[in-house]
């Protein structure tokens, strides 16, 4: 951990910079994959599963038998945990539904907006040793609340062609429409362009490696929406004298273990807190299974002593962290000043991992300072808000001249005429 | 207008395709402009104003004197119209504010989300003969309701260095922070990267020519958010026997006059309605000042006779029009079936131009079938929704095991430990 004591404000802009990775060199290869999937559909997915996942698949789609068998393979305790998390996420995201509110802006001029599900969505869940069923919950629950008709899951198969039982179990709970054994850029291509087995979707969600990241960027240029621009995960902790250094260290490590490129920042007004947290980091790091990742991430991370609470808040707002933990006694005082953050954890007993799994908030959040302008995934991400308006004869008589005057001033005579021709008819009758 | 009678469903996918334009060839030139602006800041903007706008600017920013002088140059009638539109847009967008709702997902586990303004936003308003003060209202009103601190307006100057008085007047009403005389890709670069006079913003809004479109795409890859992917404007009208052919023709023309690449579609179950609308199009077209644009747009447009109301709805949902007008007597019956559209106009007296200017709904909407997954601009576009959570000691005891079980199953031991270390402390006390 890089320690910085009282950096000058002028140095902050550099301190909040994340390391950038140029992934453009991956684009040509990914565009080739896209072409193959467009031309050969399912057959391309089967070829690429053999090439990249080392498996000859019998079927691209998980079968009902596989899904049914998964249920018995998931330990009871894990099922209960998944159901509890599901319930909490459902409760929180259901409250995000926006009721239709009709507004009469002038007599006879009524406007409202209505949330309508995105018909077809695709969820990508990475493979590997850690089965990210928690991410599947975070995407699948709001998709279900929204009422998306087609919910396609793509996830790479293991070498034996299987998908982790916890993923299949969670997908089945969520009523996912199709479970496709496909990973990488080819999975993104299949969801964006469609194949015989995979319907083309309108929006693609989910994390992934750099191939998936670039593939999502490329399809978004081609008109398929994506959830969020991707970046390494990150946490910023603001700690005062009341903070428990062991808790703070545990929170920093829970972010650091994600990967060597994770970003971890500690802000405090107390050098002694910083020192104690560092000691705890060393102790706790030793026993972690993902110690190598965490140690690498810590090398690039920052421990900064600042002069006041306001400075910590200002620095944090400039950094715009994905996760922000206020390990302070008086979080109520600070929380209203937060302008840029993905998700905020208040007080000493709200660890980030609560939000990662089960408290109810979403864990798909803006990284890389995108929290300055982007929100995390929510029910909003699975709907469009369509506006409606109904104008009565009287309404048009009330608003008509305003429209005519503005259209004329903008030189758009046909816009004006669409009103004038109606007003003429109304005055004639 | 291309007339198609009862096309087979299999042909629909082709009919809803918009002509695509490959703008990639513009990228190298725009990246050069970006580089110039990054290196030379204001000076680059001054050079490029001379090169592209043909003007040697005294000052990049509109002065207080210019802004004050504008007020007297705007006719009283237009001022009143702008104020009426402002009031309606304000009323409708204010209702979009989301109250903070705290949800206790389990005892002691409280979650909520809060809308927080994007600090710095940039609005681009194109120049040319038509001063798009209506677009400035559509972007500036929600920015103001949201509480954005810095609202930067970029718009290209006329050859005499001036900005249209209606733009200055509207910007002043809206409390725009800075009015910058810059257009094209250089304006986008200035707002994305910052110059001496233009603070870098976090999100850029507004329409523009193809240079602006590509520049927005490129800065969005670099982490600056943008409002919506761009495309030519479009309207789809569903008309039954009750429709007034002259009204329908006027609505189609008010879209067609935007430009030669505008998309105009008429769906009806009645060949006779189609014929009467065509006759009206010919009559009304003749007297339009923007006749040439409109005539070109009509050449590419579609008049389709379908077999039933349901077919019209299905086609429209597949097309996903930016604007959808239901020129039918029983719009209540159809409107619940709309799944993809930007903004919907109901009945015979709700012309699209009402929404373009003054009814209160936003006119910055998804084109090019993006309405399948995107919403138009709204108050949401100017805020982030930050989630918060507060977990009490009791709450952590209630939810702790769920988190531990899930973290362990995902192989993320440090995530588990952030909970375990706290539970241990609670049990010790």
Overall description:
Two copies of one chain form a homodimer. Chain A has 429 residues and is α/β, with parallel strands linked by helices. The first copy, chain A, has three domains: 185 residues, Rossmann fold (3-Layer(aba) Sandwich); 145 residues, 3-Layer(aba) Sandwich (Rossmann fold), CATH 3.40.50.1980; 37 residues, Single alpha-helices involved in coiled-coils or other helix-helix interfaces, CATH 1.20.5.1300. In chain A, the strands form three sheets. The first copy, chain A, has a six-stranded parallel sheet, with helices on both faces. A five-stranded parallel sheet of chain A has the order 6-5-4-7-8, with helices on both faces. In chain A, helix 2 crosses helix 3 and helix 16 packs antiparallel against helix 17. Chain A starts with a strand and ends with a helix. The mean pLDDT of chain A is 96.
Write the topology of this structure.
The structure is a homodimer of 429-residue chains.
Chain A: E1 2-5, H1 12-15, H2 27-40, H3 42-53, H4 64-73, H5 76-94, E2 103-106, E3 109-117, E4 120-124, H6 133-146, E5 150-155, H7 165-173, E6 178-181, H8 184-193, E7 203-205, H9 210-221, E8 225-226, E9 234-239, H10 245-256, E10 263-268, H11 271-286, H12 291-299, E11 302-305, H13 309-319, E12 323-327, H14 331-335, E13 343-346, H15 352-357, E14 383-391, H16 393-409, H17 413-428
Helix pairs in contact in A: 2-3, 2-8, 4-7, 5-6, 6-7, 8-9, 10-11, 10-12, 16-17
Catalytic activity (chains A, B): L-histidinol + 2 NAD(+) + H2O = L-histidine + 2 NADH + 3 H(+)
Enzyme class (chains A, B): oxidoreductase
Binding site for NAD(+) (chains A, B): 124, 186, 209
């Amino acid at each position: 951990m890089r320690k910085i004591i009282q950096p000058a404000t002028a140095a902050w802009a550099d301190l909040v910079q994340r390391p950038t990775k140029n992934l453009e060199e991956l684009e040509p290869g990914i565009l080739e994959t896209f072409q193959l999937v467009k031309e050969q559909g399912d057959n391309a997915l089967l070829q690429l599963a053999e090439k990249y996942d080392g498996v000859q698949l019998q079927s691209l789609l998980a079968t009902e038998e596989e899904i049914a068998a998964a249920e018995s393979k998931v330990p009871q305790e894990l099922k209960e945990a998944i159901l509890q998390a599901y319930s909490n996420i459902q409760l929180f995201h259901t409250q995000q539904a926006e009721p239709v509110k009709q507004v009469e802006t002038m007599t006879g001029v009524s406007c409202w907006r209505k949330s309508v599900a995105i018909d077809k969505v695709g969820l990508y869940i990475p493979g590997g040793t850690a089965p990210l069923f928690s991410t599947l919950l975070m995407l699948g629950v709001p998709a279900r609340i929204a009422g998306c008709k087609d919910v396609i899951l793509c996830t790479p198969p293991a070498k034996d062609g299987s998908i982790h039982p916890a993923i299949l179990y969670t997908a089945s709970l969520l009523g996912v429409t199709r479970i496709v054994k496909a990973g990488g850029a080819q999975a993104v291509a299949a969801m964006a362009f469609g194949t015989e087995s995979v319907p083309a979707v309108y929006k693609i969600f989910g994390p992934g490696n750099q191939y998936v990241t670039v593939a999502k960027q490329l399809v978004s240029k081609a008109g398929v929406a994506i959830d969020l621009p991707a970046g390494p995960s990150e946490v910023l902790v603001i700690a005062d004298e009341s903070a428990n250094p062991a808790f703070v260290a545990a929170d920093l490590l829970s972010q650091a273990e994600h990967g060597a490129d994770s970003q971890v920042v500690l802000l405090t007004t107390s050098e002694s807190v910083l020192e104690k947290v560092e000691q705890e980091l060393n102790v706790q790091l030793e026993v972690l299974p993902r110690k190598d990742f965490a140690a690498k991430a810590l090398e690039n991370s920052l421990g900064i002593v600042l002069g006041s609470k306001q400075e910590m808040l200002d620095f944090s707002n400039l950094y715009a962290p994905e996760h922000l933990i206020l390990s302070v006694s008086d979080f109520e005082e600070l929380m209203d000043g937060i302008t840029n953050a993905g998700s905020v954890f208040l007080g000493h007993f709200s660890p980030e991992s609560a939000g990662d799994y089960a408290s109810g908030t979403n864990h798909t959040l803006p990284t890389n300072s995108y929290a300055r302008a982007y929100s995390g995934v929510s029910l909003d991400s699975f709907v469009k808000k369509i506006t409606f308006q109904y104008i009565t004869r009287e309404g048009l008589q009330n608003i008509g001249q305003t429209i005519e005057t503005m259209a004329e001033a903008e030189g758009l005579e046909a816009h004006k005429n669409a009103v004038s021709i109606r007003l003429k008819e109304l005055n004639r009758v």
